Amino acid sequence: MKKLMSYSVVLFVITVILLLIIPMPAGMVDVAIILNMSFSMMILVITMTIREPLEFSIFPSLLLITTLFRLGINVSSTRNILSHSGSSGKVIAAFGDFVLQGNVVVGMIIFLIIVLMQFIVITKGAERVAEVAARFTLDAMPGKQMAIDADLSSGLINEQQAKEQRSKIQREADFYGSMDGATKIVKGDAIMSLITTAINLIGGSIIGIVQSGDSIGNVLNTYSIATVGDGLVSQIPALLISTATGMIVTRAVSEGSLNEDVSHQFVAQPHAIMISGLAIAVMAVIPGMPLIPMFIISAVLIGGGYYLSRRIKEEPIMTAAAVYGMDAAGGGAAAGEEAAAAKAPVKEEDYFKDVNNVYSLLSLESIEMEFGYSLIPLADESSGGRLISRIVIFRRQYAQDMGYVVPSIRLRDSSMLAPSQYCIKIRGEEVARGEILVDYFLALEPETPEQEVDGIETIEPAYGIPSRWIRPENRERAELYGYTVIDPLSVMVTHLSEVIRQHAFELITRQEVVRLVENLKKTAPELVEEAFPQLISYSFFQRVLTGLLKENVPIRDLETIVETLLSSVSETGLMPRDTDGVIERIRTALKRTITRMYCEDGTMKVLTLDAELERDMVSALSKGENGFYLALDPDTLQSIIRQLAEQLKKFSGFSQDPVVLTSQVMRIHFYRLTEQFYPKVRVLSFNEVASNVQIQSIGSIKKQ
Fold this sequence. Notes:
Membrane topology: Multi-pass membrane protein
InterPro entries: FHIPEP_1, FHIPEP_3, FHIPEP_4, FHIPEP_CS, FlhA, T3SS_FHIPEP
Strand content: 5-15%
Organism: Enterocloster alcoholdehydrogenati
Strand order of the largest sheet: 2-1-3-4
Number of strands: 14
Keywords: Bacterial flagellum biogenesis, Bacterial flagellum protein export, Cell membrane, Cell projection, Cilium, Flagellum, Membrane, Protein transport, Transmembrane, Transmembrane helix, Transport
Protein name: Flagellar biosynthesis protein FlhA
Largest sheet: 4 strands, mixed
């Protein structure tokens, strides 16, 4: 029996197909008609109570089955009408008598109105909505997938949640694609109903007049009742299914069931209700209008709107009390006292009497971006702002390049800033600030412009390049003169991305390190189990990753980094204390990655240290509590910095970052010497350059 039930739908469809061939008695037709109406009503109620279309994902297939069932009933009833002198059961006769009421013309007109209303209004509208929904759902799939990937990268969701969301997006696309085709079935069903009605009336009349020899009036009366009844018992379920189709394809932006949405959204507009009541009251002055019904309806609308507006004003007070969560002193206050306390507004000083609420003020955002009110449209997606989508793209690209996921960025407007200003904060402290003219473009000045362009002189915030804010109509002219023209949003996003790159080493927390290790465990479980936490502590690993990110070394090849750390441990048998030495070994292991970052067309342009100067610097190394440090005299230090400033000018025409090449012993010390003056200068050792790269020295720093 259980196995038979599992094939119930298959048996039902086969039975429906047989109805198209095998004659069915009038009593069975009555049962089938009642079942058809019941199924149609059930489907309509389901579509009105579900919260999202995917809760009723079988609807396209169900639409085909119910249509096929209805067509099978039509064929059986038509066969009975034509072969039994207009008789096809009690249900059809009852519907025909009830609608016609002794007037064939009126009955036929009512039937045609119902059919045309379904065909032209409901079916046509549902077909168009389904078509647009299917196209928009397919077009939005890449953006939704990108948003899921961004949330997964930022840690807002886990892998399982991302998998479920991707599956839901795919099912939505399949559902709306199926609905686009299923609506054509509803449209065809309405057309077939008109054809069946014409066949019943015309064919039945011809058969009645020719075969029975009855009068034309009696024949038309008999077959008109049967025709209208048969048409109605098929069209009423069809109308319900068409309405259900329209319901389910228009549920894309709903948040609850249809009943909840209608109730909440109408209740939220009391002023519209009161205005409608006033309009009805004004219409009552038209001569001939029924005054009593109109005034009653007007009074109900005005009174109801006023009551709702009063209730909406009271809701914020009740909500504030619920948010603050003030408890009764003894936990056993009476219900009336609790209700009174809930309605009373809670003062700020009372709210912060609870020490747990004070702790909420201590949290800091890893990255914040505040901006003046004129820059809000750049971030507001509802007005076409693309700042958030650009940040998502940057986060994904940075993760691919550096192997580190940038934390979520908090965006907020600030009244403390000028309208066109923005500032970037790291852990609550401002680290950068800029100014954007939204209606202008930023033109970066070339070294030798052919001609100057009129504009407001400024400095590009990310790289400090002299620039001009120019009007949009001057953009093409500026490009002809050799300027690089950037839109305001790109200026702000570029500045934000550069600030994040410079401060990435400050953002990598212990929690993020653990997350990176867990992600590595998916591809190298044995390596992770061997290394963490017995041989390598998470704190030491965090220091290593911080040191690499500080010098802009990607940590994407985490497996190589951990293996190099393990080899350092195996040599000594203990966790190494010399973090600098470990980092130098890891940099050597990552030399292909490092070389690629500063190589152009197989050539790396570098500055070198004079051999005599480097010997003097090595001899100036002194040992302290935290390892060796470089102790140079002030004259030598000033000479090195002055020469470095002059030599860096040679990199202005190249696309690669400035690189200084030293020995492995001196690399970390020379970097620390120069980072406070020139943080964007990259210091590499000879061991970090791949053998297949040609090194081209374009300058040297000498002993003076």
